[in-house]
Specification:
- The structure is a single chain.
- This protein is of the alpha/beta class and 441 residues long.
- The chain is 34% helix and 16% strand.
- The chain contains 13 helices and 15 strands.
- Helix 7 crosses helix 9.
Length: 441
């Protein structure tokens, strides 16, 4: 069985890490897997990039990237003031990457397994040109929306001039993707047939031409969203989680781990982390700060990874350690093991990969009880699920986890949950069965 995994990046970002881990798990279970990416940062020889064979192809490749990014920007000019860096998770995928499609079809795999393909890597129309059966794992909502990666609703607010306008509220779930999109909250558009409407029509029209496409939601929540979407309502949609290497992510001695990170031995440490942890609003950093201000224990200190200290560092009654971006699993394992609890205050999560990593290292997780995190955290068994998005309950959960009488059981349950449901062998076998079913059909 020959599988080709497609992702824009190989090891940077949650989707890339998930795709790479599946690739690694498949290889360990005897599958001929290759990963094709646009930007390769690792030295793994089973991960390949597009090879432009001559000067003409190199020039065309660079021009395609520049033109694609430029056109994306031009189409968003009218919305530019409303799509900030923080909320700007909107992709159109306009320009065709012909060399990529040509390469995919030349490899001629049994199955093409798409993951995160945005940032100009693969256009919507390119997907229909792939000759092999397609399996598509959804790490965010872009595949079935009118362009946004994280859906949000419009809520009326008043401008300085007293006029009502539409605003982007990450707390509120938008379900316009179920029919046609339009009046997009991310774009803050008041037009029914805006850019999001047109993009969704493109997807419906193009994807209808694809004979074999199986959709994978990485959590029950993501699976349900895909099933009810206008784009995938007539497709087969299954639920399979992201895998994790439990031979790498495993508990190490807490004192030794703290020494490695130069963290205090006698404190209770709360961990929070994600890519751009403090600057991406839906990751919930502000909500976590609000919750931590409601905990007054002098024994608590706060650890943040995935971000350097922000300019306006919040005032807390606890000391804060900002560790920046971590690029290797060994550092993460030591950090998870060093802390007493991890908090995952995200407002929307396809799966919750850092939560599963923490659990695999035997560290309980506190989170809001919603979206993909419901598949990872079991309330008061391996962590705590607070009421969304109640910061008082989040604070209560943190305090409960830090002082639980059965804390050792929480740690044990955390590890067992991952071994049982997310380890490489378990997830790889499920994907292999799915591939066999797709090829049989």
């Amino acid at each position: 069985m020959k599988i080709l995994i497609i992702n824009t990046l190989d090891i940077y970002g949650g989707a890339a890490i998930a795709a790479f881990r599946l690739h690694e798990a498949l290889l360990q279970n005897g599958v001929d897997s290759t990963m094709l990416v646009r930007e390769k940062k690792s030295d793994v020889n089973t991960i390949i990039t597009l090879q432009n064979k001559n000067l003409r192809e190199k020039i065309i490749g660079k021009l395609s990237k520049i033109i694609g990014i430029t056109l994306e920007g031009l189409f968003l000019i009218k919305y530019r003031k409303t799509i900030t860096k923080n909320f700007g998770s909107f992709s159109q995928q306009i320009v065709s990457n012909r060399n990529l499609v040509k390469t995919i079809n030349a490899i001629n795999p049994d199955i093409v397994h798409l993951h995160w393909i945005c940032y100009g890597f693969l256009s919507i129309e390119d997907i229909a040109k792939i000759k092999s059966p397609i399996v598509w794992s959804l790490h965010d909502m872009w595949a079935f929306t009118g362009g946004c990666h994280v859906v949000a609703e419009q809520v009326p607010q008043h401008s300085d001039k007293g006029m009502s306008r539409c605003c982007y509220d990450i707390d509120k779930m938008c379900n316009k993707y179920v029919e046609n999109c339009g009046n997009c909250g991310v774009l803050r558009s008041v037009k029914k047939k805006d850019l999001s409407f047109r993009i969704l029509q493109r997807k419906k029209r193009v994807f209808a031409r694809i004979k074999s496409m199986t959709i994978v939601g990485v959590s029950k929540w993501m699976t349900d969203c895909a099933k009810k979407s206008a784009v995938f309502s007539n497709r087969r949609v299954v639920c399979l989680p992201n895998p994790i290497n439990t031979n790498v992510f495993k508990q190490m001695d807490k004192i030794q781990a703290r020494k490695l990170w130069n963290l205090p031995i006698g404190k209770k440490l709360i961990l929070f982390g994600a890519v751009s942890a403090t600057s991406t609003p839906y990751k919930g950093y502000d909500l976590l700060i609000e919750a931590l201000n409601k905990i007054s224990s002098p024994d608590i200190e706060f650890v943040v990874f995935g971000s350097s200290e922000p300019k306006d560092s919040p005032k807390l009654p606890h000391k804060i350690y900002y560790l920046g971006h971590l690029n290797d699993a060994e550092s993460l394992v030591a950090l998870y093991s060093a802390c007493d609890v991890m908090v995952h205050p995200s407002m929307r999560e396809a799966f919750g990969q850092t939560a599963s990593e923490s659990l695999s290292c035997g560290t309980p997780v506190v989170a809001f009880g919603h979206s993909g995190l419901l598949d990872v955290i079991e309330h008061k068994e391996n962590g705590y699920l607070a009421q969304p998005f109640d910061t008082s309950d989040l604070a209560k959960g943190i305090d409960w986890a830090l002082n639980a009488e059965n804390y050792d059981d929480l740690c044990k349950n955390a590890r067992e949950k991952v071994l049982r449901e997310f380890n490489y062998g378990v997830v790889a076998k499920k994907y292999i069965e799915l591939y066999k079913e797709v090829l049989k059909e």
